[in-house]
Each structure stands twice: as C-alpha cells, then as structure tokens.
Design brief:
The protein is built from 9 helices and no strands. By secondary structure, it is an all-alpha fold. It has one domain (about 1-285). The longest helix has about 45 residues, at about 35-80. It is elongated and about 75 Å long. The chain starts with a helix and ends in a 6-residue tail after the last helix.
C-alpha cells in the first residue's frame, strides 16, 4: 500500500521527462529564439533527474516482485522434492558456479542491449547520409527528407536486435538447471551435492541482486551523462563546440542507451528470471 500510495506522483514525474524533451525538440525545429531553447534545456535536465527517480521506483517494485517469486520458487521446489531443506547454500561449489552465471547474465544482457542501440544508430546515420547524397536539396532547405525510412529502421531494429538478449534471459537459467540436474543424477546424487534446482536458485538469487544494482547504476549514470552535456551547452566549461562539449557528446552516446535501454530492460530481466525459474522448477529436480 505504501508503494501504491505514491503511484500517481511517480507517474507524473515519469511523464515530465518526455514532455520537456519533446518540447525542446519542437522549439529547436521551429527555430525559436535561443533564450527559449535555454529554458527548455533546463527543464529537460530536470526531466532526466525525475526519470532517474521514477526508474528507481520501478527497480524497487521489481525487487519486491522478485523476492516474492523467489519465495514461491523455494516452495515449489519443496513440493516436488520433499527432501529439499529450503536453503540455497552458496558454500556448495555447484551453487556458487550457478550464482556466477547469474551475475554474468546481467552484464552480458546489458552489453547486448547497448550494442543493439549502437548498431541501430549507425543504420540510421547511414540512411541519413544516403538521403543527403541523393537529394542535395535537403541541406539547402528546398526539399524535405523521408522521415519514414528512419522510423522504419528504428522500429525494425527495436524488434530484431532484442531477440538475442531475450533468448539469453530465457535460455541461460533453463540450460544451467538442466545441465546441473544431469550432473547431479550422473554422479549418483552424492551427499552434500547440489541439484539443478539449487543451482538455479543461486543463479536467480545473485542475478536478481546484481540486476537491481546494475539497473540503478545505469539509470543514474545515463542521466548524469545527459545532464553533463546540457550543463556544458548552457555556457559552462567553454560551451558548445568546445573540447569538453565534444567529450560530453561522446559520453551521452553511452549515457542514452544506459538510461533508456539497458537500465529499464534489467527490470524486465529480473522479473522474467523469477517467472521462468518458478514455472520450470519441476524440470530442474
């Protein structure tokens, strides 16, 4: 109830960011005076901060859901394996290896998401260059570019590039659980050994913890990069076209996929891990 009580305020803060961002774009494209753009830039910087705060709220809700689903996973394993103590012991080598797989999954998933943004961005850049080359009137202002091509590239990339990260999240816990289940059976179920269900429990536990921390880092770090660029563009440290500004622009190309792609995607990863392991728990026993 405490989290639900603030839902309206969180939604309002989350909406503020895109509104101010779009307002800045409209002001720039409509060639408004410089002082108006400066005001929308300040509002956009505030919007980046509010978005980071609301994403923290989303991480908190994901953590709570993951905790409840983890408890349900333990109960589900107990139902199918009465001898299970209900404790995930990281002191067992197999469980520790599974926990390491959980941590690796988070970093690997994040890297795939960030690279996907980079590949899609380069596709759009190449398309824009091709349009400029075929139609010189675009740069002269005598003809309009084909915006639909860029939208089409971005839409297709958003669907295509996230197939591999999605398969990774679904496939890794299943593969780890089945492999360690086979090892547990093949070695004669030794005393003190860990079954596939316990190993997946370790993967789920550490993957959730690392995913929450990583999501917070990416959300806040990405917002900081964006605001650093806006701070320089407002006239500090040499202003636009200075060396610090060029460095901040490069940093923002990293910050944007941090805060808008990899960070929010980790909320899905945390919840999806818990759901998959809960549904497929009988396979690992």
């Amino acid at each position: 109830m405490g989290m639900l009580a603030t839902a309206a305020y969180i939604l309002a803060m989350d909406t503020f960011g895109p509104i101010t961002d779009n307002a800045g774009g409209i002001v720039e494209m409509s060639q408004q005076p410089e002082e108006i753009r400066a005001k929308t830039d300040r509002l956009d910087a505030v919007g980046n901060t509010t978005k980071a705060l609301t994403k923290g709220y989303a991480v908190g809700s994901a953590a709570l859901a993951a905790f409840l689903l983890f408890s349900a996973y333990i109960d589900e394993v107990k139902n199918y394996w009465p001898g299970f103590s209900g404790v995930i012991n990281l002191n067992k080598p197999e469980v520790f290896v599974g926990a390491m797989f959980g941590a690796v999954l988070v970093f690997l998933f994040s890297s795939f998401a960030i690279k996907a943004v980079g590949r899609a961005a380069f596709s759009i850049i190449n398309n824009v260059r091709e349009q400029f080359r075929k139609d010189p009137g675009i740069m002269k202002g005598t003809s309009k570019p084909d915006y639909g091509q860029c939208v089409d590239i971005a839409t297709k990339a958003a669907l295509k590039e996230m197939v591999l990260p999605g398969l990774l999240v679904v496939g890794m816990p299943v593969a780890v659980g089945l492999v360690f289940r086979w090892l547990f059976i093949a070695t004669g179920q030794p005393v003190g050994g860990a079954s596939g269900a316990e190993v997946v429990g370790g993967l789920l536990m550490v993957g959730t913890i690392v995913g929450i921390l990583m999501a917070l880092f990416l959300n806040n770090g990405g917002g900081a990069w964006d605001n650093a660029k806006k701070y320089i563009e407002s006239g500090h440290l040499g202003g636009k076209r200075s060396e610090p500004h060029k460095a901040a622009v490069v940093g923002d190309t990293v910050g944007d996929p941090f805060k808008d792609t990899a960070g929010p995607s980790l909320h899905v990863l945390v919840k999806l891990l818990s759901t998959i392991t809960l549904v497929l728990a009988p396979l690992f026993i």
